[in-house]
Amino acid sequence: MEQSWTRAKGAFLAVFSPTVLWLFAFFLLPMGIIWAYSFGQNEGLVDIAVTGTLANYARVLQPLYLLIFLKSLWFAFLTTALCLVIGFPVAMAITFASEKTKAWLLVLIMLPFWTNLLIRTYALMAVLRTEGYVNWAYHWLWDETSGLLQMIGQAPLGAFTPLDLLHKNFAVVFGLVYVNLPFMVLPLYAALDRLDRSYLEASLDLGAGHLTTLFRIIVPLALPGIASGVLITFIPALGSYLTPDLLGGPDSQMIASVIERQFKRANDWPFGAALSFMLMYMTFAAVALQAILARRRAEARQ
Amino acid sequence: MAEPIITIENVTRRFGTLAAVDNVSLTVEEGEFFALLGPSGCGKTTLLRMLAGFDNPTEGRILIDGQDVNRIPPNKRPVNMVFQSYAVFPHMTVADNVRYGLNIAGVPRKEQDARVEEALSLVQLDGLGPRKPDQLSGGQRQRVALARALIMRPRVLLLDEPLSALDAKLRDQMRTELSTLQEKVGITFIMVTHDQDEALALATRCAVMNRGLLQQVATPNDLYEFPNSRFVADFIGTVNLFEGQLIVDEPDHAVIRSPELGAGIYFDHGVTGAKGATVWAAIRPEKIELKKRTEGDTAPKMDDTPEGNNVVPGIIRQEVYLGSESTYEVEIESGRRVKVTRSNLTRWDQEDFAIGEAVWLAWHACSPAMLQS
Ligand SMILES: Nc1ncnc2c1ncn2[C@@H]1O[C@H](COP(=O)(O)OP(=O)(O)O)[C@@H](O)[C@H]1O
Ligand SMILES: [Mg+2]
User: Which of A86, A115, B205, B298 is such that its CA lies 20 to 30 A from the CA of B61?
Assistant: First the structure.
């Protein structure tokens, strides 16, 4: 059909106006209000006067909050890097599995999406806490080794001290990787699966080993998938709230927890709004960076 | 004779219960342009991939230069492949594509540059080194794939359907070029194709495959003139096949009685078949002569054939004028239609035989081929 859908004005309006209205009324407008609040100040207990002040942003740039931002960026970066390192081989394994295994592996990757994040996080606590089964297994190994050492006449290992895994930065990054891994694996898998196998075969045919083929052919060709995987992991990781809140310790606060506190306990909406938008600007920066890199790549191809 | 460069011994490749390649044995000599020919799905690509090392025989073995390669991975085999999709790396320039193998092999940069230039000029892509593959036409991409494989100086170059993705005009041009290229580099070429014209035009020898089985290995001329089965006779060119019984089998001649034809078919050579066995005669359309016939005529007699053989009456039912030749469909008494082609040697020749006209079909004793399967 030659006729463009955008030219059939009636149909076009009928289909798209509810969506646009919805987006405007329940997304853009509220966001705009919060954005306006970020330039305001509290008046009395409930009223907020939008005065155009930059005081909230000035507060955001205080070392205390900047450090938390930096820490959040660091956690998000670490999470993304770990997800990429773990997710790439997983995506490769799914891509090269037989059709039947592939379906099962994909279901396994998506299984966590069907479980509530809160439940998953508490389950993770059950794994990591001092009486959790990581420590349980470690304890067992400890005792066995001790017994073995005694059997061959060596001194036993001494009293068992459980690993302190929970409520520290390690637990937060571990939890973030666990939660975000599927977001990395799926776009990587999509990119790898689209890859024409004959590129890989041609590389082998020309004398390259598997590792060389991986770094010189597969990774460059999967780059768009890697970029979207990185972005789609980095953004939610940066704004994580539940995971650092439940798994972290006193020094592993991420910015979302601080924001939550402003809106609730501190009842300081203008400052909370400024913090939120700071996070949003960072996200935009990440998206813009990716877009620029993609454009570069496209231009380099010309 | 020198040792064959490729020896395929009883190679079978099964996918589940399907034998994609079924007990195939053949040898390829150094310097040959060898074609694997057969209809789509007959196992040609599977066989080629086993030579390259991307697949392994379920049974049997493959020798390259006398060495059993079954355990040797593709990156260690002295063969290179031009893929059906060309597989030119899209993220590298033409020059980087072509130098890829040399780079991996650790050839010094200076030598790489010289050899890349030489390879590009071999495939007539001089000066296109800095281009990216998406700035090239399909034909040019194929040349890149060729240069990329040839620069490795392989013992054998494997080509999977090299011409099938090109448009008709380019295909003719590339066909000539491939043949020139092979003569120039002197490397053994093994080409997979489903196009019999392509195989006949390019190959020094062809292997015809059908459903995983090797049907015949012969020169293009022998395949055409002496097919060993109905499949080969029918697959290579156009043919008229007549089923019949072997009624005379002498050392110097043989006769088939074919009810379908309504006459005997006389051969000027003996065969090794049991008398009375069902056999087939294959007669190419251009080997049948057309002669005018009027009611009450006596049948003309071919000079090398006893009376009553190799001549049948018919009526022309269709004519296709092709310029240099005309093809006719002639209905014989049994109702069968026989294809006849006739060169248009003289002007206005095509007016000689018109639709509906009565004719005699006649052929020499040396023309038909007898097929036992
Ligand atoms: N990897 C595979 N798995 C299962 N069946 C295959 C595979 N490769 C090829 N086949 C089957 O083997 C047969 C021969 O395939 P192929 O060698 O590609 O044929 P050709 O190249 O002659 O067209 C086909 O029936 C095809 O479906
Ligand atoms: Mg094929």
Answer: B205
Residue type, A275: L
Q: How many alpha carbons lie under 13 Å from residue A156 in its C-beta half-sphere?
A: 11
Q: In 10 A of CB B137, how many CB atoms? A: 11
Among B231, B259, B279, the domain-final residue is B231
**Residues B24 and B132 reside in one and the same domain:** yes
CB of B35 closer than 8 Å to CB of B207:
yes
- Taking residue B269's Cβ as centre, other Cβ atoms within 10 Å add up to 12
Domain range enclosing B321: 238-371
Q: What is the 8-class DSSP label of residue A217?
A: I
- Render the burial of B177-194: b for 16+ CB within 10 Å, e for the rest: bbeebbeebebbbbbbbb
Per-residue CA distances from B9 to A231, B50, B69, B212, B214 (Å): 53, 12, 12, 14, 12
**B35 and B17 belong to one structural domain:** yes
In which residue are the tokens 């571990």 written?
Answer: A174
Q: A interface toward B at CB cutoff 8 Å?
A: 196, 198-199, 201-209, 212, 217, 220-221, 301-302
- Which helix H or strand E contains B169, and what residues bound it? helix B168-185
Decide: helix, strand or coil at residue B107: coil
Beta strands in B54-104 (DSSP E): 59-64, 67-68, 79-82
Q: What is the pLDDT of residues B291-332, one digit of tens each?
A: 888 877 777 777 777 777 888 888 888 888 888 888 888 888
Hunting for tokens 């609040």 — which residue is that? Answer: A37
Nearest alpha carbon, ligand 1 atom 14: B43
CA pair distance B204, B213, nearest whole angstrom: 21
pLDDT digits (tens, 9 = 90+) for B23-33: 999 999 999 99
Q: Give the number of the ligand closest to the Cα of residue B209.
A: 1
